[in-house]
Amino acid sequence: MSERAAKVTPADEEEQDDDQITDSAAPDAAQEIDAESETTPAPVTSGAEAVVRALENAGVEHAFGVQGGAIMPVYDALYDSDIYHVTMAHEQGAAHAADAYGIVSGKPGICLATSGPGATNLVTGLADADMDSDPMVALTGQVPTELVGNDAFQETDTTGVTTPVTKDNTFSSDSDTVGSDVSEAFALAGEGRPGPTLVDLPKDVTNGETDREPDAPSVPETYEVQERADEEIVAAAAERIENSNKPVMLLGGGVIKGEASEACREFAVEHEIPVITTMPGIGAFPEDHELSLEMAGMHGTGYANMAITHCDTLIGIGTRFDDRLTGGIETFAPDAELIHVDIDPAEISKNIHADYPLIGDAATVVEQLTAAVDESPEATKWRAQCQQWKSDYSMAYDAPEDEPLQPEFVVEALDEATDDDTIVTTGVGQHQMWACQYWTYTEPRTWVSSHGLGTMGYGLPAAIGARIAADDDQDVVCFDGDGSFLMTLQGLSVAVRENLDITVAVLNNEYIGMVRQWQDAFFEGRHSASDYHWMPEFDKLAEAFGAAGFRIDDYDEVADTIEEALSYDGPSVIDVHIDPEANVFPMVPSGGDNGQFALTEDQL
Amino acid sequence: MKRGLEGPPPEDRPTPAGRRNKQGIRIDPEVEATHEPRRTVISALVAHEPGVLSDVSGLFSRRQFNIESLTVGPTKDEDRARITVVVEEPDPGIDQIKKQLRKLVPVISVRELEPDAMQRELALIKVDAEDPAQVSAVADMYDATTVDSSPETATFEITGARQKIEAAIDTFGQFGIREISRTGTTALARGTEETAAAVNATESTATEANHDKPYQTANDD
Ligand SMILES: Cc1ncc(C[n+]2csc(CCOP(=O)(O)OP(=O)(O)O)c2C)c(N)n1
């Protein structure tokens, strides 16, 4: 088999015999190619087949979606493909699963939906991927071209609706080019700053005849990405680093997407520069390393927020300076000169003015910086100061046995019971913050959460996508809130059908807790619509779906139940009844000064 | 009330002396310098394909850029259209507009025109024509062409820079203006300079964003 062409797809390997049968009927040119490789698949005959061929050519192995009238031709073509399609219970879940798949695998995740409601159900997932720059391709069915614009059954102006929440989208209008449209969308999703792309597929276009094979994935001519930063600015930035006394590296999600974690680690360790991450940057640097100050921002650690406020040189890599990170602009790193590395020129000086703008691929630019910096900064005092802050503002918490179960304890217990490469997904709320703060992340692509959009309900479908992308021996744990879980828990049916080994820990406080926390702090404790005392029993609900259900009420149940849930081969749900009044600290109120984080409620 | 974490409270922590302004630029808090909005013309060469105008206008509305006028039309190359946008923003906002426009896949190149670029707008002005002689005297003053007249009204076409059109509208005001329709500004760079060329689009993006040129001060045309 070694003489096979490089382009072997899984489909070809298994359907070799079928191919040979087809070969005898194929035209001469095709026969010649086949004689060499025996792997050329049957020529495409329809737009839908071209769509699927484009995905196969791009190396796609999995897709997530829901059937429907307008997308049926594509699903019909998928029937003959070796792409493994995971049927989801809701299109929002398909989008989140594809998003998480993209984060974990580093290749664009694929989701499919029909026209109208199918497409609009994808919108939240698209917006989420767009905010977090996650590579993803959405393929939506559309009513036949002649009905477009007529308010036909299940018609929505999908490209119109999704323009603000996609990196790029296309209405496909020709069976001959529809395959190439999909190839291009795939290339665009992953190239440069990644993001979600969408191809809208009218039914007549996918049903239409064509023998045109799709072009190889490539981005349009007008889309060019700068890989290397300007050497002059690199040199100036290097000089700044050498002369700084209080340097800090701030690693964002772009470090992970740009596969720059290794280069950043080496740079930080070589020059002994303390490292902070943003929330999407979690995993870019090992949190158990001495130089790590973990995450800064609204619920970042006190030490990270002190360091970012007092540094004199901030090396920001692959971060967009979101307001949850910066707090009020006025007081953000006010004494620091900013060296900003980003592949997207529009991020430079968007929120925080960059004194040294370095446009380029994170890994490449960090290598440029590595080559340019000759001397390490003189920062012994600064490092000692950072260590002092680490002990002053340590993330230690009280967990008295006779009081209600504290959520931090549960997060730490699960962390201890699992390996370092375990993937964590979350919903949005307090539980998400505890999962950031009290789990020790050491590897990139193990933290999968909704950062920029903050989408409740992200956790379970993301765990499904992550599970499918992950290695078999990697654990997948989802921390969810009761409110968040309730938003997309129909995905449990998918996890059961596919027998996906995931463990969901619902940190159940019978509140939409983060809202309750804000109401306590800023609305005089008026719990308007945040009290969720009507929550179902999630362990029983899990069992109703066919998953394993567990419940924890007390400290002494934690270790054993976690052990049982983790060892269950399939989806399990632990309904963890935590202290309903537990709140997340430290906290920088929105627009506040990072250095003035509150450690207790009365400091707000 | 729940207890929180340990550590020195906010009032016991040192705070740095520096400050940034709203645009994230470090400033001397003693001499606060904010950027005043200025009016400028941005020209974008785009692929002449369906949806590109809504991509561009959607970008402006969702990022809340203050747009004064937007015109679009074909170019000598039938696959390309030119979009001319007049905006009023502080310098950092103008930079953002250019960078965000360049990010759109169908956008080929984007340039901010120099203040001396040729800028023209067309307006149709319909006035009461009770005093035809005086009306036509004003029309002459602004090189306006009569495009329609009736016993009660006269409609003029006038082209020129925005200030000229505004001055004309002011002066016509004395007769009573019934209706106005304006096209918004279209513009080209002077001489051999190219307005927004297809070549070296990325190179210019990179150099512009990379080179930290000092921001200009407010400057109205
Ligand atoms: C789809 C969606 N709707 C509303 C919100 C606003 N929101 C942010 S956090 C939060 C509470 C989340 O509650 P829960 O999932 O129970 O988690 P907890 O905070 O209790 O851990 C809400 C309602 C959101 N982020 N996403």
TrEMBL record, chain A:
Task: Please tell me which top-level EC class this enzyme sits in.
Answer: transferase
What do the Gene Ontology cellular component annotations say? acetolactate synthase complex
List, for all copies, the residue spans of the domain called Thiamine pyrophosphate enzyme central: 234-369
Q: Where is this region: Disordered?
A: 1-45, 156-178, 191-219
Give, as in the UniProt entry, the pathway in which the protein acts: Amino-acid biosynthesis; L-isoleucine biosynthesis; L-isoleucine from 2-oxobutanoate: step 1/4; Amino-acid biosynthesis; L-valine biosynthesis; L-valine from pyruvate: step 1/4
Per the record, what are the reactions this protein catalyses? 2 pyruvate + H(+) = (2S)-2-acetolactate + CO2
List the keywords (alphabetical). Amino-acid biosynthesis, Branched-chain amino acid biosynthesis, DNA-binding, FAD, Flavoprotein, Magnesium, Metal-binding, Thiamine pyrophosphate, Transferase
**Where does the record place the Thiamine pyrophosphate enzyme TPP-binding domain?**
427-576
Superkingdom of the source species: Archaea
User: Which spans does this entry mark as compositional bias, Acidic residues?
Assistant: 11-21
Q: Which cofactor does it need?
A: thiamine diphosphate; Mg(2+)
Domain (Thiamine pyrophosphate enzyme N-terminal TPP-binding): residue spans on this chain? 46-159
Per the UniProt entry, the Enzyme Commission number(s) are: 2.2.1.6
GO terms in the biological process aspect are:
isoleucine biosynthetic process; L-valine biosynthetic process; sulfur compound biosynthetic process
Give GO MF terms, alphabetically: acetolactate synthase activity; DNA binding; flavin adenine dinucleotide binding; magnesium ion binding; thiamine pyrophosphate binding
Annotated cofactor note: Binds 1 thiamine pyrophosphate per subunit.
Which family does the record claim for this protein?
Answer: Belongs to the TPP enzyme family.
Which PANTHER family does the UniProt record give?
Answer: ACETOLACTATE SYNTHASE CATALYTIC SUBUNIT, MITOCHONDRIAL, THIAMINE PYROPHOSPHATE ENZYMES
Q: What is this protein called?
A: Acetolactate synthase
The gene name on file is ilvB
From TrEMBL, chain B:
CDD domains, A to Z: ACT_AHAS
EC number, as in UniProt = 2.2.1.6
Q: Which residues form the signal peptide?
A: none
Molecular function in Gene Ontology? acetolactate synthase activity; acetolactate synthase regulator activity
Q: What is any one of the record's Gene Ontology cellular component terms?
A: cytosol
Q: Where is the composition biased (Basic and acidic residues)?
A: 25-34
Q: Which GO annotations describe the biological process of this protein? A: isoleucine biosynthetic process; L-valine biosynthetic process
Q: Which residues form the ACT domain?
A: 41-115
Q: Among its keywords, does the record have Thylakoid?
A: no
> In its UniProt entry, what is this protein called?
Acetolactate synthase small subunit
Supply the source organism for this entry: Haloterrigena gelatinilytica
Name of encoding gene: ilvN
